[in-house]
Amino acid sequence: MAFVLDGESEASMNACFAQLAVPTPMIKRGGLAGALRYLGTERSPESIIVDISGADMPASQIHDLAGLCEPGVVVIAIGDRNDVPLYRDLVRAGVTEYIVKPVTAQLLAKALAGIPHSGERAPISRKLGKVVAVVGARGGVGATTLAIHLALHLANQQSRRVMLLDLDLHTGGCALALNLKPTPGLREALANPLRIDSVFLDRTMAVHGERLFVLSAEETLRTEADFTAAAVDTLLGVLRTQFHYIIADIPRIPASPYWQALDTADLRIIVADQTLRSVRDTVRLREGFGAHRAEHSNMLIINRSGEGGRRAMTLEEMARVKLHPNFVIPFRPNQFTALGPLRSGALIDVVSALAGEISGRAAARKPWWRFAA
Ligand SMILES: Nc1ncnc2c1ncn2[C@@H]1O[C@H](COP(=O)(O)OP(=O)(O)O)[C@@H](O)[C@H]1O
Ligand SMILES: [Mg+2]
To answer: Which fold has domain 130-359?
Structure first.
């Protein structure tokens, strides 16, 4: 897909596409601004050619473009300035190639040929989407609730393309909470990992609002969710090329497919409450995570704090077993009675601060419940 500026470059782009026999070319006017408008509302094409001539701050606009594109997209910039610092800035902002005008079919062919083939394309954001795995130390601590609200926040408040992946195939908890139909295709995908590609996923996933996509199944209890760690790996690999964030709700079942999700996640969040059992299970989960690898970060979130009064372990007692929660969410039963997602309250405050940390965009205000890690 090309975003040109005038009739002349449209004609020459057309000629280039014809000479190169590009299968389904699309040419639009509007240059960088046009591309930003288009990507604000539409799905990203596989590759984008954009004319940056005359743009005030092309590198910063390319940076914005990278934010709107799905992670796997390739961007080629064309412009009228032959200048090395500009070229360097553009590449740093994420373009694969910069062509100085006039664009010829030959130059374009070279730039397009420089793109490795699908699966290993040089993505505009350089990094693929981030996987955030959420796991509860035990049932009922609020892991699913946290995963859903984090996904909603990143999609709606930060305008990211987000996948909420519910690996608990029997409960359909994520679909249910968002009032979506369960996606039976998820089990099929995991059972036949070779079928997992973007077309298959497009057909399978449910959509909530504009940017939140959900894979959450509700298999009958007699159906075995029989899938391998390799299938989880394949699925996450494909999802990383299409979403900025994959929020995975991981059931606490000690089997290799679930460990695979936890082992490949960029961030692992344990949700626990302050019961003795939950604290003990948190310690055990942490042991399961193994040595802290540089590419991972782990977080602990205490939810339902204050429930159970004096029977609960205090934060001081938790510190003695080296558990230092990153966030603490109070027990607020009356806030959880409404159907559908919450809009405000303590959990939402924590979720927005957490999303700020994950995305590097700071939350609006410094919250009172922040604990030093
Ligand atoms: N901070 C909280 N205060 C009160 N109730 C909560 C809180 N967080 C979650 N809940 C409720 O706890 C229940 C279990 O939550 P869920 O997210 O399904 O837990 P999990 O996925 O860990 O089993 C839900 O009914 C949810 O609304
Ligand atoms: Mg759950």
So the answer is: Rossmann fold (3.40.50)
